[in-house]
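User: Please predict the structure of the protein below. I'd like the answer in structure-token form so I can feed it into my own downstream comparison script.

Assistant: Understood. Taking the following sequence of 531 residues as input:
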Amino acid sequence: MADMISGASAPSMAFGPHGRGSPLALIAGALEAWLEREREQLPLWLPVMLGLGIALWFVLPNASGWLAVIAGGLGVALAGVAVGLSRRTGVAMLVAGLAIATGCALVWSKAERVAAPVLTRPAVVTFAADVERVQQLAAKDSVRALLRPLGAPDLPKRLRVNIANGDAPAGLAKGDRIRLRARLMPPPGAALPGGYDFARTAWFQQLGATGKALGRVERITASPSGGSLRERIGAHIRAAAPRGSDGIAVALVTGDQGSVSEADAEAMRRSGLAHLLSVSGLHISAAVGAAMLLTLRLLALSPMLALRWPLMLIAGGVGAAIGIAYTLLSGAEVPTVRACVAALLVLAGMAIGREALTLRLVAAGALIVLLIWPEALVGPSFQLSFAAVTAIVALHEHPRMRAFMAARDEGALFRLGRSTVALLLSGLAVELALAPIALFHFHKEGLYGAIANIFAIPITTFIVMPLELLALIFDLAGLGAPFWWLTGKSIALLLWIAHLAGNAPGAVAMLPTWPAAAFALIVAGGLWICL
């Protein structure tokens, strides 16, 4: 009887609420099988989980919520250990939980670390200050100076002040010491619910006040170097480039968009070409590629070097150095750093004989940026740059796209046609990826960007930037004028495309403020499709 009872009870245990045949066990088995099938894609979710922890820190209002996120992430990680690290479910839970907890703790510690005094109420003060950075604002006929006050204990450590061009000392540059009277205000928060919160950005930049200079600004001492290299190059381009094209020319080299007129800047935004003014993947790729090509050509002139030296590795090293130098020159903004990291990863992949242009490269770049600048996650710059490159790489990794772009025996006309179609599809993918982000942050989005970029990107990459580089090189011998003239004409063509696409009927879609939860769902859906 005991044996009969024991034998009869075994099936009931196996198919009970927690047995092998239970719904919970079936779900666990299906999840394990799905994770096994998706094992190649799982590493791509590491920066997503890190970003989720960072995003929750910005969404939740106080330390109690942040501690709950960290505790919850650690709880998920411990649950993964309990499930078993021999299972993909357990490893996935462990890594995801640790990444979420790390993201929240990382941005929290960064916010505490950069804490600096902030002005509490508007004030009109006279003070001396050292100039840390100068940006031209052509649309406002002024300059924007980042200042560090001297001998003013009641003022924050860093200020941002706009100075009218007529009141600013001639050639104001980094390293100058000035005296001024200014009306200062605390950094403003969002004007509308869901709007741009400058106070948050200012906090991470340790910026305690903004304001406007009142009257003439006195230069106490001038910078012995005449400003940073970036400012000197920008000033040289503004003086040498034809009028009307100088703002675009400065932006392409230094990333400083302050000299671009408001009309041209608006046209670039409406036409979907504004990304060309921000030094990012296009510019870094062109610089690195040109440096590698030139290095290879020069070294290959020697038969001995061509046969005995690893020319590709040497060219890659030169390209990496040029990419890093260009990033530092342009101010090391998030899109530039992301592009530089991606370029370095591509070069590293080439060095070890691996395919580097993959979504894993994008994930690695996002991970590096978030670990260094976690606050960048909530800014449009990070979102736009990574959304664009993720959409392009995901599209070109799709089997059908790979088959369409595979090399084949065909004429030049058909090859050009396939390349044009690929460029158009890439543009459409980028527009679809960027539209929700642009609508959420700026409440408007250009609709003809895919078509405009087909013409604008080749013009910028193969005409404008090489001509501008030649102009700068020949300026060393005083012979750059013809190249500046050609640069001006090519920029005029680029602006004509921008104004044509930006002013076409129905060129811009506009949308009022919409819930952050809806935006989060769209982002999650886009990541799910791509990854």
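That's the full token string. The first helix runs from residue 2 to 14.
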